[in-house]
Amino acid sequence: MNARLILSVVAVVLALALPLILPLFQVTLLVNILIFATVVVGLVLLTGIVGLTSFGQAAFMGAGAYTTAVLTTQAGWSPWLALPAGLVVTGLIAWVLGLLTLRMQGHYLPLATIAWGMSLYYVFGNTPALGGFTGLTNIPPLSVFGLDLTSPRAFAYLALLALGLTGLGAQFLLSSRTGRAMRALRGGPLVAEAFGVNSFRLRVQVFVLAALMAGLAGWLYAHSQRFVNPTPFSLQAGIEYLFMAVVGGSGFVWGALLGSGLITGLREWLRDVLPGLIGAQGNFEVIVFGVLVILTLQFARRGLWPLLERVLPQAPVRLLPERGRLPAREKPAPGTPLLSVEHAVKQFGGLRAVNDVSFELRAGEILGLIGPNGAGKSTMFNLVTGVNPATSGRVSFMGRDITRLTAGQIHRLGLARTFQHVHLLPELSLLQNAMMGGYARGRAGMLASLLHLERREEAALQHEALRQLERVGLGELAHTLAGNLALGQQRVLEVARALVADPTLLLLDEPAAGLRYGEKMDLADLLRRLRAEGVTILLVEHDMDLVMGLVDRLVVMNYGEKLAEGSPAEIRAHPAVREAYLGVDVSGEEVA
Ligand SMILES: Nc1ncnc2c1ncn2[C@@H]1O[C@H](COP(=O)(O)OP(=O)(O)OP(=O)(O)O)[C@@H](O)[C@H]1O
């Protein structure tokens, strides 16, 4: 048994003992902490992991609470039947709101969550059937095997179970293929989609999941209080849940419990002491919360849980036993035409960034796409990878027209890429980063991940990622955090991540940018080795040192047009190319 596991067992035993040993008043507080933490676990997934800030989680909690309140008091339903009904209602509201708002970027989405958070609050308060602002009373207690959970001590066990299952499910999810995709979404959809993730669908799924967790908390809240009114589901409550997430550590599942415990406990204590200190009645605790959040953001930006993690023993890293490999792609024979660009044009307003460019790439070769700054290389890269579709012309891959396909669809056909500006998940290990590359080779969805039923596939992904890390020379560092790597190694890690996708074609976007001479030479060696192993590579590069000694053929672009095409020797001798490089001889010497 490792120390972390022992500690977890001790924590669980302590949690189970607390409802019995604490005074009754504190048990009631504990129940609230557990219920609020269940809402915050959803916020951790939504805001901390995926990066979607929501002020509206309290409103979803209200949807769950009011559904059970209405069904149990007015329709005579059993609370246990009202729970799935409440989850369906909450899930449907979230799904519709998600479809309407989750395409928004930047600050528009948080604004939208404020808008519907307020709307739902007023729906609760202004609907006579929901009791208006007075609310609904006489909600029946929950009963288990004929035993009424009227005492907070008994209820605490149910709240513990709900939070335990929610937290465990969230942890399982985060250690899965879907969880890695969620983390990749944080920086925007570019990386996730490049590896085949449908980013909008995943955002909607996480949004609904977080709402369901709030709906479950609402059901518990309604039956613990035995009455509901709109106040606990207001925008202010939604903001307090965000405070809890931020203070506890919005990127950490158990930070939800820490944040909920601190804010809820502090609120009770401050409500007792502040009026006495200040000599007046009022919600002074909210001012203290504001200061607390500002201090947290200033001194512990990732919240308090990571500070705790530093002193806690870490779980040992262990690989799952491999029970079968991921399906592999059949590769075309060397020399087969793989990628063909025909008369591609990309127009940005009045500017033709790519103007009637055609070239072909065959299996087994390294083709370099070079050109001075602003020549249109990145734009061409985006046309091929589906990030930006061509205005006219045609791009085909393995005989299929991919001109109008999305980045994810093109990736699934066998094209994997790296990024000009490294896009890794620094807080994850090299192994987990590399596993992201295999997203499209897996199938397990969100439900299987929540229930931990995808371990066989996860094991296959782990071992494939390890093989690719070893292939590029990073095997020894597999369990190091990616954020600790030097830039050269980070670029190599991106190559490994792309290789985990088992690509037919590897596209590298300026892989030598920012590297030292030695790192560039190592990278060139690696790419030569990969070519010898049959990997086809399209290299968009600026750096002549790297390109000339490495590629089989070159396409040179200038001002959006194709200037020349040929072997490195032919390109070196090409007068127009020499001129385009502004007096710098492409052999590396200064032109007299
Ligand atoms: N989204 C865009 N909107 C408008 N103009 C753009 C856009 N993207 C690129 N351009 C313009 O298209 C031209 C080609 O740019 P591109 O980034 O493709 O060149 P590049 O060869 O990759 O240059 P570099 O080596 O500096 O990255 C430039 O003039 C650039 O300003």
From TrEMBL:
The chain crosses the membrane at residues 29-52, 83-102, 114-134, 154-174, 204-222, 242-266, 278-300. Keywords: ATP-binding, Cell membrane, Membrane, Nucleotide-binding, Transmembrane, Transmembrane helix, Transport. It is found in: Cell membrane. GO terms for molecular function: ATP binding; ATP hydrolysis activity; branched-chain amino acid transmembrane transporter activity. This is Branched-chain amino acid ABC transporter ATP-binding protein/permease. The keyword Lyase does not apply. It comes from Deinococcus terrestris. CDD domains: ABC_Mj1267_LivG_branched, TM_PBP1_LivM_like. It is a multi-pass membrane protein. One of its GO terms (cellular component) is plasma membrane. Coiled coil: none annotated. Gene3D superfamilies: P-loop containing nucleotide triphosphate hydrolases. Residues 339-584 form the ABC transporter domain. The keyword Membrane applies.
